Amino acid sequence: MEKNYAVTRHTFDEVIVPTYAPSAFIPVRGAGLNLWDQQGKEYLDLTAGIAVTSLGHAHPVLVDTIKKQAETLWHVSNYYTNEPVLQLGKALTEATFADRAFFCNSGGEANEAALKLARRWAHDKYGLQKARIISFVNSFHGRTLFTVSVGGQPKYSEGFGPLPGMIEHIPYNDIDAAHAVMDDDVCAVIVEPVQGEGGVMPATTAFLQTLRELCDRHNALLIYDEIQSGMGRTGKLFAYMDYDVVPDIMTSAKALGNGFPIGAMLTTNEIAAAFTVGVHGTTYGGNPLAASVACEVMKIINTPDFLSRVVSAGEQLKKMLEGVVAAYPQVFGKVRGKGLMLGLVMSDACLGRAKEITAMAEKNGLLLLLAGLDVIRLVPPLIITDEHIRRADALLRQSVDEWIKTAG
Asked: Is residue 257 packed enough to be buried (19+ CB in 10 Å), middle (13-18) or exposed (0-12)?
């Protein structure tokens, strides 16, 4: 067998299951906010791997951490524990509301664990009838059968039935709808403090307060999906800290490992007790390699100076985007979001055309994301500088100008 294969974007179409439609270029190297493709073209990356590489590509401290851990201990199975995962558990519980942590490999797995825990807790405490889960329209919670069912976007669950039952979706930020749907058969409400895939939509404080009050009244658990909004993305370690509305269970992933696969479910002692030995598990979750990287990520992000810079950088990036809206009112309607999780919303006249602009931006060396058809999503590495923002401004305006000329 050949040791190395010459591969191109066409190779994807030949050998990879077509669950994605990746761009025409293949990134081969990254440093900070910069990416280079096979031809050596440079890109300014404001995607962070969809809010994952929050400390940028190839962060030197994390590279060194992986090297050292790889030379020490990779995997021992859950017949044993290991020092890095215990250190990470201590770091996360000391920094949050939680007493206990469960580690897995992804955000979908973290949400799967959270939802299973909620149902198990309710079953043990109140019986079979308390199993209904409330979620929100346009939410996204992962790709397992349970999490796509709980997620509020039917396109991800269609064709996979029969789906898990007793799941109900209501409009996001709708307090009246929340009151109408809650009853004593609800075991959990799961919500993103800032909807990511659903259009970069922040929750209102009153909405989250209402959910907390309703869960308390009906003995249900409040679950926060902070997989995209957490780990400093909004200017706090986790977004719930900015709202001051505390959940019962919270999930984290994405930026927790800066690209090394890891997920976490955090909860209290009382709720965690519903997961006894053998009830739930994972082969790779909490392995020393992933946990050691996440420990270093926590050390870097969870400092007052770092989080303060995220706030100021978010304000600058938002101001830059508002300038773009003002310059192109026929194209863009507004900017929304929190911290460095921002959405550039298309105008009514240009609904459905966000992808055309991100494609033009990519051609010009600026990488942006989508959040649906009508929102351009910006979730850059948290280490973004003023110079990066100036470069992004120039490239975005250039791309919009060129798109206007070709769009007709």
From this structure: buried
Tokens 């790889």, located at residue? 70
**Any binding-site annotation on 38?**
no
226 marked as part of a ligand binding site = yes
The CA distance from 124 to 119, in Å, is 9
Do 259 and 381 belong to one domain? Answer: no
Same domain, 284 and 203: yes
Query: Which of 234, 244, 192, 238 has its CA nearest to residue 336?
Result: 234
| Domain match, 292 and 167 both | yes
Q: What is the residue range of 93's domain?
A: 73-301
Q: Is 72 annotated as a binding residue?
A: no
Domain count across the chain: 2
Is 227 annotated among the ligand-binding residues? yes
Q: What span, in angstroms and rounded, lies between the C-alpha atoms of 218 and 359?
A: 47
Query: Is residue 43 a contact partner of residue 37, using CB atoms and an 8 Å limit?
Result: yes
pLDDT tens, the chain, 408 aa long: 456 788 999 999 989 999 899 899 999 999 999 999 999 999 999 999 999 999 999 999 999 999 999 999 999 999 999 999 999 999 999 999 999 999 999 999 999 999 999 999 999 999 999 999 999 999 999 999 989 998 988 888 888 888 889 999 999 999 999 999 999 999 999 999 999 999 999 999 999 999 999 999 999 999 999 999 999 999 999 999 999 999 999 999 999 999 999 999 999 999 999 999 999 999 999 999 999 999 999 999 999 999 999 999 999 999 999 999 999 999 999 999 999 999 999 999 999 999 999 999 999 999 999 999 999 999 999 999 999 999 999 999 999 999 999 986
Which residues are identified as catalytic?
A: 140, 225, 254
Question: ∠ at Cα 289 (378, 78), nearest 5°?
Answer: 115
Helix (H, G, I), strand (E, B) or coil at 37: strand
Burial label, 120 (beta-carbon count in 10 A; 0-12, 13-18, 19+): middle
For 190-287, where are the alpha helices, taking DSSP H only?
205-217, 240-243, 269-272
Distance (Å, whole) CA 104 – CA 290: 10
Q: What angle do CA 166, 127, 146 make, to 5 degrees?
A: 30
CB 389 within 8 A of CB 319: no
Residue 150 maps to which CATH number? 3.40.640.10
How far from 262 is each of 27, 203, 248, 292, CA to CA, in Å? 22, 26, 21, 11
Classify residue 365 by burial, with Cβ atoms within 10 Å: 0-12, 13-18, 19+. Answer: middle
